[in-house]
Amino acid sequence: MAELDHLVVGCLSLAEWRPRLEETFGVKAQGGGAHAGLGTHNALWGLARPGGGRCYLELIAPDPGQDWPAEGPTPFGLGLPATQARLTDGPRLLTWVTRDPDAAALLARGPAAMGPLRPMRRGDLEWRLASPADGVPLMGGALPFVIEWPEGPTPSDTLAGSGLTLTGFARRPDPEADAALEAMGLAALAPEGETGGGALRAEIEGPGGIVALN
Q: What InterPro entries does the entry give (predicted)?
């Protein structure tokens, strides 16, 4: 039942990198907004899958209109100096997110460090997301975050028709990640492959040609 929900690309400035990615993709972002109380905001692009199905890309950055939360993790560790240092030269593919209607059961088969499900919200959109204690993606991003959407359309559905297709997605071989993903039944969603040295690599094809992210 688990599916690839979205890819998480971090950057330091949405004002700078959203228009640059729009130009690179040849497609305007289709949605996004602020994560109230969490210190971040995002822009979203829908992605078709070659074999059918849909997911999306999230470009997420610190929100200059908010402070970081007083306690608890920042989304994907974006409030931490080490994560921000990774993003100095531009956006990076930080991790991926899988959705499952029974996310708690999925998490029970994975490492405890993936964290418990916590409620989140952006505008009228609500969901639950499991996050590590510090928010930092596990195993360099090879292990996903787990999301549980309420019944009804998800952003993967509402963002359909962007003209962008996820033509490739792979993770760097790692025995520990292999074992965890096999136990959760997720290995097929993030197959081992050539990543250019990073933990993850994605290829997106659209009006701007083929764009690689890692």
A: Glyas_Bleomycin-R_OHBP_Dase, Glyoxalase-like_dom
